[in-house]
Amino acid sequence: MGGYLRTQTAVAAGRRPAAILAVLLAAALLVSAPALVAILAGLDSSLLTAARDWASGLSAPFSYLAHARVVLYAPLVALVMRARENQ
Predict the structure, then answer these.
(1) Which of 40, 43, 59, 75 would suit a FRET pair with 34, their CA atoms being 20 to 30 Å apart?
(2) Residue 19's closest CA among 27, 10, 9?
(3) Where are the domains of the chain?
(4) How far apart are the first and last CA of the chain?
(5) Which residue blocks in the chain are alpha helix, DSSP H?
(6) CA distance 62 to 9
(7) Span 37-68, pLDDT tens digits
C-alpha cells in the first residue's frame, strides 16, 4: 500500500502547466479589469451607463430567486417539527 500512496503523491505533486497558465491568466484579468474600466470611463462615460442598464436588465429575473426561497421554508419547518417529535 505504501507504494501506491507514494505513486499517487508523486502524480499529485507533478507540474501542471495548463493549470498554472489558467491561474496566471485569471490573475491577469482580475488585475487589469479596474484599469480597463477606468480607461473606458475616461473615453466615454455613456459606455458605463449602457453597461449598467444592461446589467440591471440582466439581473432582474434573478430577483425572483429571493422570493423562491420562501417556498423552501414550509418543508424545512415541517422537517424540524417532525424531528422534534421524534426526539
Answers:
(1) 59
(2) 27
(3) 2-43
(4) 44
(5) 2-12, 17-43, 45-59, 63-85
(6) 43
(7) 888 777 777 777 777 787 777 777 777 777 77
